[in-house]
Every structure is written in structure tokens, then in C-alpha cells.
Amino acid sequence: MALKRLLQLVFTWWNGATAGTLLTTSRSGQFVGEDEFGNRYYRKPGKDRTIGVERRWVIYKGEADGSAVPPGWKGWLNQTVQVPPSEEKYQPREWQKRHLPNLTGTSGAHRPQGSILRAGERPAATGDYQAWTP
Known about the structure:
Layout: H1 2-11, H2 19-28, E1 30-34, E2 40-47, E3 54-59, H3 71-77
Antiparallel strand pairs: 1-2, 2-3
């Protein structure tokens, strides 16, 4: 089992952090906080010479999925806000929906009317469509 985990660290990026990310995190990463999904957020204080701003990153709990980052943390990662959600009392607005991960490929995925994966009848054509014929 240890060999499998070692190979995943070296050769895959979708199963969590790679060996390079873990090395960078241990050497120069400053822990900032953790979200409700168990994702951990880090930064390297000071401006990075290559990007001109502070470098920030996330180590996902489990499979790497960008949609698993809540809005407050997304704003911090993208340099939209400077104060991370762990250092402020973030209260979602009443119009904001609860965060959901990307449901594509699951039973909870959006299936519009007319989809072959949705139950029911497909709506009739409205007559504004003309099939192309060569």
C-alpha cells in the first residue's frame, strides 16, 4: 500500500498533492486555514518574482477538484480579497446558495428537458428549425 501511495505522489496530480507540491509546502508554505471540506490552504509570504504577487495554493482533501473550493476561499486564492476566510467572520449573503461540488458525471448532474438521460417526453419542435441537407 505504501508503494502505491508513493507512485501516486510522483505520477498523478488528481489524487491529491504531488510530491513536488508537498515538498514546496513543507519548505516554504505557511498554513492559512482549512475549509469545511477538509481542503488546506497555504501561502508563501512576499511577492513571487515570476508572478508579482504572493503565491497561494490549496491541497485538496481527496481528489483534486477546483469546484470543491468554497467562494470565500476562491476569492482569496485568486487574489480578489487579501484576508483569508479563516481570519474573518465571513457570513454568506441571504441570496448566496450553499456550495456544491461539480456534479457532472453523477446522478445529481443537471439534465435539461429533452436530454436522453432525463425521464419524460422531449418537447416538440417549434417549427423554427430547418434541417440542413447537402
